[in-house]
Amino acid sequence: MSERTIREQLQAFGLQKIINMIDGDPDKNIPTLLNWVDRLDRTDSLLEQRTAFRRVIEDEDNMWGNFIKSFWTDVDDGVRKTLFENFFVNACLIGMPRQEKAREEHDCNVPWAILMDPTSACNLSCTGCWAAEYGDMLSLDYDTLDDIIRQGKALGCYMYVYSGGEPLVRKEDILRLCEAHNDCMFLAFTNGTLIDEAFADEMLRVRNFVPAISIEGFEEETDDRRGKGTYQKVIRAMSLLQERKLIFGASCCYTSKNTQIIGSDEFIDDLIARGAKFAWFFTYMPVGVGAPTDLIVEAPQREYMYHQIRKFRETKPVFAIDFWNDGDYVNGCIAGGRRYLHINANGDIEPCAFIHYSDSNIHEKTLLEAYKSPLFMQYKQNQPFNDNLLRPCPLLDNDGKLAEMVHTAGAHSTDLAQPENVDHLCAKCTHACEHWTPVADQLWQDSPAKAVV
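Request: output the structure for the sequence above.
Response:
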């Protein structure tokens, strides 16, 4: 059952009262909120986050303290309250203990977030994107999406992320799901070109939908990969969201062509000025039979991003994550249901958005059955994939590891256009792995995180 227990209801009620009180005087009452969180987090599942949060709030000159307070000046009151209740209360304080209980009971990974594709359709055709080959062949209907969320909540998952294809092709169903599950947070990786005034107004109404807008740098870099005119449409979307005081962020893929731009101070400063509250960085992955390999970053480029993102965290008021270079913060790979998984538009339950192999389908198995499947158990048994947490990925950073797990599990390719042999895919990443290994090993040797692992 996904209904809250009496204890969970009392926790939510108490914290909601504090959230309402904070609106009157954030400087005075944010510490009160933290004291409540301390009492409610009886299992210390958020101890590290609570400690870091308190440290920045207590330092009046801390950039992060000012960033947190900007949610009272830059964000609509109703949107901010919904974010705190659905993200901090439901997804973290209530959801994480429920997930941990399910992990112990079932001896399998149970994710904090579920990534799913409402459709394979997209209005763009970006270089190196596997979805560009799929067309509008497949989609998950509303009832299936709704059932995934209901199953997920029963196991403690209140965070849902849409990808595709272009998820906003399904605007009506996405908004309908926001209304049906107003206790959840929804995020979408979107190219941003379908965000118009009407949809921005709907976002302001439902309050629990946040876009992560894909952008490749400035106009030249974005249009080069995504098509002429895309950059200006993205900037227009950001303007509409900022005007309405809505929360949004950027999704940035760094390749061999754009790394110096996408990792520059000028680019991140521009995103902040346009209202972005977070920036999520991904490195290019050569997924798909015809995917170009020349876009894979070289080791010096990846190292550049490693240093830049860490610098940004000390100097830029934006929440930045690099999903490949931040393995030391999350103990390696988070895929395979450890913290997240992916369900494609055909219903195939995959360990990662970049790993198109599966032995389960949502039309045939429940989420829990998929978590116990051979492929997901291979992930659980092998994570972390390397003692060096700066080499977290079983595909890009550990040559042949993905192929070993896929073969052991008897999983199959889920590529919707042309099935890709897993050995062929791994071979495309061998060069990158070999060149990143000595760099990562030196960074890890010098890393303070090494001492606590």
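The longest helix spans residues 77-106.
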